[in-house]
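Severity: low
Component: inverse-folding endpoint
Summary: output formatting inconsistent between runs
Steps to reproduce: submit the following structure tokens with default settings.
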């Protein structure tokens, strides 16, 4: 989907996604000391706002101005500050000081745009910083619930680890994980890629 399609999707008054942070963000960030964080392709801002509530100094980057506006409203509602930047991830230039946490959640791009965006994400890490990538996994197409029906935008764990290793990062976790989705027909299981990597201090 291009930015105009995302603008249309975010155009309603209600949130497309829940205001609750992603469960894997919460579980993986626990124990990290709050510092500078960037949430790339942050959609309506739920993860960026949650990080700010935990004491992080957060920048949210997205190419949808409509999504950014919703993020601003959510931050105001929660009484936290987030810096917002309108940009596609692969066109965004990280600040030279870098970030202690770079979060990339459900940035479903085909190749080669996917690797280009992940390379930007890795380059945004400060020494000792953590990269956290969560995305709809390729196996979700046949064994999981929901997510994009297009295999070209679905991830394999190695899509992320290959970029991380090439960028000099140490991979700390690289898994397929199960995310339970509540539906009208009861709980369903979705399969995600989850990779956590760290830049040496």
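Observed output (run 2 of 3):
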């Amino acid at each position: 989907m291009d930015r105009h399609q995302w603008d249309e999707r975010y155009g309603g008054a209600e949130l497309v996604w829940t205001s609750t942070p992603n469960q894997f963000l919460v579980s993986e960030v626990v124990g990290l000391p709050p510092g500078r964080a960037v949430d790339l392709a942050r959609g309506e801002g739920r993860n960026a706002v949650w990080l700010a509530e935990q004491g992080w100094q957060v920048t949210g980057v997205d190419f949808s101005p409509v999504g950014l506006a919703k993020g601003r409203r959510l931050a105001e509602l929660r009484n936290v500050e987030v810096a917002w930047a309108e940009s596609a991830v692969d066109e965004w230039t990280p600040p030279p000081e870098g970030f202690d946490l770079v979060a990339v959640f459900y940035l479903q791009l085909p190749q080669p745009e996917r690797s280009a965006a992940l390379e930007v994400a890795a380059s945004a890490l400060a020494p000792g910083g953590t990269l956290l990538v969560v995305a709809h996994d390729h196996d979700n197409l046949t064994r999981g619930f929901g997510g994009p029906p297009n295999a070209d935008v679905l991830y394999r764990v190695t899509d992320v680890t290959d970029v991380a290793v090439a960028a000099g990062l140490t991979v700390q976790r690289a898994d397929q994980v199960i995310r339970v989705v509540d539906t009208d027909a009861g709980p369903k299981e979705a399969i995600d890629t989850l990779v956590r990597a760290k830049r040496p201090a």
